[in-house]
Amino acid sequence: MSTISASTVERDLVVFQVHMKDNHDIGSSTSFVRQSCIDTAKIHMNDGGFTIAANGITFPETGYYAIGCSLYYIAATASDTNKRVSPEMKFYNQTQSANLVGSGSIAGMAYCRNLTSSGYSGPRRSSSMITQIAQVSANDVIAIYTRRSSSNASQGVEMLDNSIMWGFKLQ
User: Which helix (H) or strand (E) element contains residue 93?
Assistant: First the structure.
């Protein structure tokens, strides 16, 4: 029986990680809208040839990828306690004009409510995360889409630069 040493195993990484723009308004649409929220000045890693633009990531190779995003956002202080927000996000393949993985998964678990009447002041923060495994073709552009839930489309919500998108090829 032979033994394989971990130091002799080589693997070409195909991976990216990038921050989002600070104070990026996600808008008031209750339909999904493409966001130009990627901060191209804050690329943490790009191994394998991804093209990183404000409005999406161009994937360099055909294959299966794990793709994720953590959306950290702030809801402005509202005029009453009924003002609340729960933004939703998903990935969308711009090149194929299709959701990822069939109908597409939606992250919608984040929620903020104004608590001014309870003695608190200032903006509220929350976060939402999505991870998907998807088959992507070379040169496909994957974008982040967001929408407001119907709870309150007029309440201000901004994505913060603590938000991050990442992906890597499964081999």
Answer: strand 88-93
